[in-house]
Amino acid sequence: MKTKHLAAISSVLAFSILGVRAQLPNLVVERFEGSNYGAWKVEGSAFGKAPARGTLPNQMTVDGFDGNGLVDSFNGGDAATGKLTSPPFKVERKYLQFLIGGGGWEGKTCMNLVVDGKIVRSTTGPNTQPGGSEHLQPAQWDVAEFLGKEAVLQIVDDATGGWGHINVDQIVQSDQRNSAPVTRFNVKHEIFVEKPYLNFPVKNGAAKRRITVSVNDNEVRDFDIELADGQPDWWAFLDAAPFHGQIVTVKVDQLPEGSTGLSSVDQTDEIKGSADVYHESLRPQFHFTSRRGWLNDPNGLVYFKGEYHLFYQHNPYGWNWGNMSWGHAVSQDLVHWKELPVALYPDQHGTMFSGSAVVDWKNTAGFQTGKDPALVAMFTAAGRPFTQDLAFSNDRGRTWTKYEQNPVLGHIVAENRDPKVVWFAPESKWVMSLYLDHNDYAIFDSKDLKAWRKLQDFKLEGDAECPNFFSIPLDGDTKNVRWVFFGANGVYVVGEFDGHQFTPETRPRRLQDGNCWYASQVYSDIPASDGRCILVPWGRLPDGEIFRGMTFNQMMGLPVELTLQSSAAGPVLHVEPVRELASLRAAEHDIKPQPVIAKTNPLAGIQGDLFEIKAEIAISSAQEITLDLRGVPLTYDVAAQKLSCLNCQARLAPNNGKISLHVFVDRASLDVYGGDGTLYLPMAKALSPENRGLKLTSQGGDARIVSLKVYDLNSSWQ
Ligand code: FRU
């Protein structure tokens, strides 16, 4: 850094000697190399009596300065304040160049240029740098308009909190514009909001910058973004409807000079590229995805007034995980979803991690304002430390208010998180399961959703995060319920819960064997007339690359119905895709009962993109039966009684010499169910657009189709 900068100065000299451009040599204003501040006036204590020689006591490593000395107002830490004022000097070159670091507080940690008694230029430090270092960076002002005038520099430290100091070095007048990337800090762009969306240019993989959006000096949003300085990969949108008719100030912490990252932020009636949304080549056609950006865990699954709510962990501004907010979508049938505005944004307590939602029918929390009960969400605010917070909605989940006395449950240990709340009718109270750390969870109760009491600690070997703890009838008998506790990987135990103590009666089992299933949640408040236990998992993609090149990343798994059924090994959860998925069926191909042999393909002639397949196949003399789904084989090994797909395997015992399979083929996944609900194999794989066929063959002997239906499916986005 030091040598690079001096080289820049000498190359300017060389240029002018050679007469390539009629530029005057650089003039050093101040290099802060002396044993005192010379003619500079020193006020306050923050600047000490002399330039610093590098990092000061208790400071993070300061680098990027030139020579041995620099201005560093960390004397006495961030609390100290002060001011340095230069002697007057004449502006004799077109640019004033310097190095700057430290606090990014406008007017408070900055260097000012004063001409005719007025501050005409001001630059702050950047605040934190990537990696946390205190790295001084080059900055420059175009001062051509002041040529010949007298000027004064002020280096100001008027801030006392975090980053309450300023670093400056190597102030030079130059006619040569610094072509090295010069960073501008806290650059602003004002927009009078007349349209519902503000669009931000994103370049995947670019350095993260911090954007803050303010209305009337109040920060209303802030987030990290891989801002594109030029041509973006895609445009992220910010829902600007709440700021309609107001001036918003969009500020970015730093921007290379010449970047269009901020100036290109604009407003539109529709999100940019909306005509293509849901038609992209890899867009899942009946698995929920967000229009733009990243999603992970389903959150706040609750049914209310004809709507299934699906909230989800969401980064609206990036293709990767970050800026955790609660995205929101609703559906009347669990199949066709409508994305709504983000429901919960990060706040002073932290980003919005996973949690659940309930209908507070008895207004136990007192949040209800109208005649309908309030929806109440309980979630983790992932700040320092992680705590559990509440928010409520009195308008069917459309807008949410954070409870003003958050948090309702303080920090317990580590990154305690993911509260899942259920109603415990026998005692008219709420019960909540919470992830603590390692394989440790805890169960709590509350009368009002606000005051929580710990009932017990609970260890679930083999799993972590995102608990579900709920009651479910055994063999459909609502008078004979059991409680199920499961973690993010779907490891579960079944037992009895008396409202105070959960006693498992099975060993841990796995609910699924696929490669894209995590952090699922069961719905709250499914009406008794329906009575189903409906679960939605995050379809976590095994390698994060499947949707590379798309403007969205990750998907939800298909909603499934859970039932608990007795078996010789104790109660077992069974899984079936929800019946509503049948509404996607288009053409039906009914394949006649016939032998399955090695050479002929009874499915030849069927071509398509999206399929549902229901098959019952008698094994007969076959050793292996293969159902090839658009190029991805699903193979049943008769001797091993195992079904395998890609690198996953699941047990599938024949029933009376037959196996049954129920498969959904979407653009980036195969969801496989079977064995009357004991087989659950959700698989992610980007299917090749060239392979649109299906194949059924047997090896080592013949099998026989007992029944086989193939349905072409419609997209749920139509
Ligand atoms: C699970 C998880 C949760 C957490 C959330 C953050 O995928 O790590 O434990 O709340 O994701 O996005």
Describe this structure in words.
The structure is a single chain. The protein has 718 residues and is mostly beta strands. The chain is built from 1 helix and 55 strands. The two termini are 57 Å apart. The chain has 4 domains: 2-180, Jelly Rolls (Sandwich), CATH 2.60.120.260; 185-268, Jelly Rolls, CATH 2.60.120; 277-577, Glycosyl hydrolase domain, family 43 (Tachylectin-2, Chain A), CATH 2.115.10; 580-713, Exo-inulinase, domain 1 (Jelly Rolls, Sandwich). 44% of the residues are buried. The site of beta-D-fructofuranose (FRU) has 13 residues, from strand 21, strand 25 and strand 29.
Give a short overview:
With 718 residues, the protein is mostly beta strands.
List the helices and strands and how they pair.
Layout: H1 2-18, E1 27-30, E2 41-44, E3 62-63, E4 71-72, E5 82-85, E6 89-90, E7 95-102, E8 109-115, E9 118-124, E10 134-135, E11 137-142, E12 150-157, E13 166-174, E14 183-192, E15 197-202, E16 209-215, E17 218-225, E18 234-239, E19 247-256, E20 266-268, E21 293-304, E22 307-315, E23 325-331, E24 337-344, E25 351-360, E26 374-382, E27 386-393, E28 401-402, E29 417-424, E30 429-437, E31 440-446, E32 453-459, E33 468-474, E34 477-486, E35 491-497, E36 502-504, E37 509-510, E38 518-522, E39 533-539, E40 552-553, E41 555-556, E42 560-565, E43 572-577, E44 585-591, E45 595-596, E46 611-618, E47 624-629, E48 632-637, E49 642-645, E50 648-651, E51 658-666, E52 669-674, E53 679-684, E54 694-699, E55 703-713
Parallel strand pairs: 3-10, 21-40
Antiparallel strand pairs: 1-13, 2-5, 4-13, 5-12, 6-12, 7-11, 7-13, 8-9, 8-12, 14-19, 15-18, 15-20, 16-17, 16-19, 21-22, 22-23, 23-24, 25-26, 26-27, 27-28, 29-30, 30-31, 31-32, 33-34, 34-35, 35-36, 35-37, 38-39, 39-41, 39-42, 42-43, 44-55, 45-55, 46-51, 46-55, 47-48, 47-54, 48-49, 49-50, 51-52, ...
Bound molecules: beta-D-fructofuranose (FRU).
Beta-D-fructofuranose binds next to strand 21, strand 25 and strand 29.
